[in-house]
Amino acid sequence: MVNLNKGWLFIAVICLLASCKKDSPVNISPDAIGHVTLQMTDVMIHDVTNPPLSARFFAYACLAGYEVVSQNDTAYKSMHGVLNDYPQMTKPEVGTFSYQLSAVLAMLETAKKMQPSGALLQTYQNRLLDSCRKEGASEEIIAGSQEYAVAISKQILKYAKADKYNLISNFPRYEPEKTPGTWYPTPPGYFPPVEPYFKTVRPFTLDSAAQFRPEPPVAFSDDKNSAFFKLMKLNYDDKKEPQHRVMAAFWDCNPFALENKGHLLVGMKKISPGAHWMGITNIACKQGKTDFSKTMLINAAVGIGLMDGFMTCWEEKFRSNRIRPETAIRKYIDPTWMPFLQTPPFPEYLSGHSVISSASAVILTHYFGDKFEYTDTVEERFGLKARKFASFMAAAEESGMSRFYGGIHFMDAIENGQKQGVQVGEWVVKKVGD
């Protein structure tokens, strides 16, 4: 279980506040936004939240924060008329408030309601407000900011409920086809497929989940002279160089990973791919010294890109329904072969990492440029060393290739996934823009 009560959190929260005088507005640092997404990530680890659903949580929480910004900073436009079915949000009539504090609280209020164990975020929220009080914020400002946040969160939650995700549970249980070349659950967990009906959810910017449907995957064949057999051989013959193993482990981000402990299978604490890119987003915002409003916009844009990226990818996954390398290679080449990474529980084509990494990289490149060098420290708290990247697209390229090095994707799923991700990212930038 993730511990959300570590002492460093209290220190971090205090550092989010700029100095203020009694009864003056509370100036919240842009870093607060990243701290909220970090707390959300910890709850997702606790709940073993799947990657598409994680993206949905991030997107709506960040939209709640951005809605507050757009109502109080004239430099930023509403998402009404930008996102699909996004309503004209009513601006709450409250007394004195800090819109930055309200934005952070709106994120928390939304996450608390949407995430299964969202109540765990209350501890962080209490510490945030206690820090405001210690820095001199009046109870009037805190109360007004909370009231504003709750009012916006309620409207965002209503918008979220209308996306039809809650109707997915009414669909019939997905059953593997059990025909040659199709996906089948893999060891050690043999989990059922994740979110087979995610394409039915309302996207944020896309016309439909099939808007950027990729070219078909290489057709399955057990003929040793076929294109598919050559794809299998690429994975089978990979030498798993040490540096490639490092890349694979760094971008693993598999919430479903299990580790053998004697007679037990124990879940390992790992973040989702979307959580990794939200972490990168806030590293970039801090390094780029973006102000609070711009930081909130960028977080919202990346969250939207993650959601729409997973939708396009998942539409293709459960349409093509292609077999994983682990299953194919064991059956047709070597029954003892093992991938370096554990295979996630869903069909192979396209590579989700390739799609959402490329989409996120395009969006971040729009805001920070194509030569933005940064050090990715997101996975340090999980024991993985930081990695330096010359650009977001370089990181996305490595993220995609990590799936080949990990033995869990064929090369065409990576290459075409990257193409789809770029299309999604460019579309989101076109819609959301500056």
Summarize the model shown:
This protein has helices at about 5-15, 30-45, 50-70, 100-115, 120-135, 140-160, 225-235, 240-250, 275-290, 290-320, 325-330, 350-370, 390-405, 410-430; strands at about 260, 265, 375, 385-390. By secondary structure, the chain is mainly α. A hairpin with a 2-residue loop joins strand 1 (about 260) and strand 2.
What key phrases describe this protein's structure?
single chain; 434 residues; mainly alpha; two-stranded antiparallel ribbon; two-stranded antiparallel sheet; 4 strands; elongated; disordered N terminus
Can you characterise this structure?
- 52% of the residues lie in helices and 3% in strands.
- Helix 1 crosses helix 5.
- It has 434 residues and is mainly α.
- The radius of gyration is 22 Å and the shape is elongated.
- A hairpin with a 2-residue loop joins strand 1 and strand 2.
Q: Estimate the global geometry from the Cα principal axes.
A: elongated
Q: Mind describing the biggest β-sheet? A: 2 strands, antiparallel
In what range is the share of β-strand residues?
under 5%
- Report the order of strands and helices: HHHHHHHHEEHHHHEEHH
Alpha-beta content class? mainly alpha
For the largest beta sheet, what order do the strands appear in spatially?
Answer: 1-2
**Number of strand segments:** 4
Contiguous helical run count: 14
Estimate the helix proportion, in percent. 40-55%
Query: Distance between termini?
Result: 39 Å
Outline the fold blueprint.
Blueprint: H1 7-15, H2 31-47, H3 51-72, H4 99-114, H5 121-134, H6 139-161, H7 227-237, H8 242-250, E1 258-261, E2 264-267, H9 273-288, H10 292-320, H11 325-332, H12 352-368, E3 374-376, E4 387-389, H13 392-405, H14 411-432
Antiparallel strand pairs: 1-2, 3-4
Helix pairs in contact: 1-5, 2-4, 2-9, 3-4, 3-6, 3-9, 3-10, 4-6, 8-13, 9-10, 9-12, 10-12, 10-14, 12-13, 12-14, 13-14
